[in-house]
Amino acid sequence: MQYHLNDKRKVIGLGNYPVVDLKTARSKHAEISVLLSNNIDPQEHKLEQQKAEFASSAMRTMLEMLDDFNVFISTRWAESTIGRTEKLIKRNITPFITKDLMPDEFTIDMARDIIYHVYNRGAKEQARLVRSTLMSILKFAIDFDNSPEQYKKPNLYDIKTNFIRDINFETPKNKSERWLSEVELKKVWNADDLPYYTQQYIKLALLLGGQRVNEVYASYVSDFDLKNKTFTIPANRIKVKQRGDHIVPLCETAIPIIKELMQQAGKAGQLFPHRDDPQAVAHVSTLRMAILCWCEKHEMEPFNPRDLRRTCKTLMGKAGIDKINRDILQQHNKFDVSSVHYDRYDYMKEKRQSIEVWEQFVLINTGK
């Protein structure tokens, strides 16, 4: 049921059919209408009733649980993902949580209301991310209370089920299969009308074997050892944190590009400095928009920075680099014992050989 109160649009569930039939739903609708006529928010009324029925056994409030979740992900997720998630929680979840709400009082209708606010403004993909984040938050709470460390101790959150998984809706599919052909690769590599930093990033991303966007675009001068021809991606900037730093060998073609970027590095040593903030790295959206504008200008099928990683993976196979060595170079997640206990200098010989083969392929196909 959708209703308006204090010039705000809200929604409340009446139950699931066939457990709640049409007659019962109408009865509930009538009860809610009476509350609204008395200027009583039915959601708050429902929450007060639930509070009267039982006292929460949780030790932390819902807002405290959100803070605990942020601390939890701070050492386990990639830095860029942490930043996006914290902003999403602050904007789309926290404003709808009252100070005294306990985690075990958080209901599926409350979750649906939070997701609905985002979905209703047309941001369907953002709504999907809110749902996914809520699911992760509840999973964190349930896993913590059921951990061996908490055995025979009072539950901090006392959430029994992850009911977010029962909230389903279709969203646009983001999965992309786009990669650049050899002809497109040559065209982009030799483009003289791309913005300077965009073209330098594209070349460097390709020559580094298609590392993840933020791992290269947020790099610093200190990450590069030109003497030993290596690029070190620190653990706080990679997806698979438990392995530690990831080292990528540098080919000869990449070194002049890196040296040139070093000469124009930001005050904090960032290789791709922010235009307005001397201490920050450039935002990926700037890179994305520059590429899309260039593609439109040249009537080329649009691609985004992430597609360069797929381009490398695909064309490396054509260059003769087997899948195992492609995976090692691009640090794809593995779950065998040797991969979990990954050493930063493991497979350096194989990675260097792959980079050299890949460099020759790129140079041949770009006319260099």
Explain this structure:
This protein is mainly alpha-helical and 368 residues long. Helices cover 49% and strands 5% of the residues. It has 15 helices and five strands. A hairpin with a 2-residue loop joins strand 1 and strand 2. The longest helix is centred in the middle third of the chain and has 22 residues, at 124-145. The protein is elongated.
Short description:
The chain has 368 residues and is mainly α. It is 49% helix and 5% strand. Strand 1 and strand 2 (8-11) form a beta hairpin.
Mean pLDDT: 87
Give me the Rg, rounded. Answer: 26 Å
Largest sheet: spatial strand order = 3-4-5
Look at the helices and sheets and give the structural class: mainly alpha
Strand content: under 5%
Helix-strand pattern:
EEHHHHHHHHHEEEHHHHHH
Please give the largest β-sheet: 3 strands, antiparallel
Query: Span between N and C termini?
Result: 65 Å
Shape: elongated
**Unreliable parts:** 335-342
SS field, number of helical segments = 15
Helix content: 40-55%
Tally of strands: 5
